[in-house]
Design a protein that fits this description.
The structure is a single chain. The protein has 5 helices and 10 strands. Strands 1, 2, 3, 4, 5, 6, 7, 8, 9 and 10 form a 10-stranded antiparallel sheet that branches. It has a single domain, classed as Pnp Oxidase, Chain A. It is of the alpha+beta class and 233 residues long.
Length: 233
Amino acid sequence: MQGSTQPTGATSTTSEPAAYAPTDRTVPTRAPQRASYDKDLVHALLDEGYVCHLGFVRDGAPVVLPTLYGRVGETLYVHGSTGSRPLRMTGRADAGLPVCLTVTHVDGLVLARSAFHHSINYRSVVVHGVAHDVTDPEEKRTALDALVDHVVPGRAADSRPADKKELAATAVIRIDLAEVSAKIRTGGVNDEPEDLALPHWAGVLPLRKGYDTPVPDAGLHPDTELPDYLSRL
């Protein structure tokens, strides 16, 4: 079977490098000290996110699409309709489709005394690679379970799996994690020394992610209890 079927977040038993090898595309030209190639960090940032941005070239022009994703070991999966353009392009190309995939977390708004030094605190991952169409039925089901569990862990086992018709209408692409980097900005304001006496408020406005009380579907049976995996959120 193509790709990995190791459960999301699992640790491999083989002796693998603890970091991705830097390349010309993964070493940033600006603030390179913020870059990291640590695999555990990259995996954690990917697992924490919900939406990735998938970039590719179509008819000579760049296209970037927001979409869901799921990680299984050292493989990312993206799904969509068999009629979507990037998935059709991947299926037609024997060599695969060159892509760039990004995931970003915004942790705070950095408000400086000068307009020039305003910034954000963030954690991001950039993945360069070649997307391949997943045709193996077992890998495809593993990928779709990973996509569902990526949104809410435990949800795949608590929902009806896709039937044959739904599987036929769903395309999945695989991107191996090989050329990858993380980049992180933390800390406070970096104002110029001559601006420190200016009478403007400066500091960081932290952002946080949270969940409200789940809203049940109108047709839900009244005796249906809230699953533990949702209660824990």
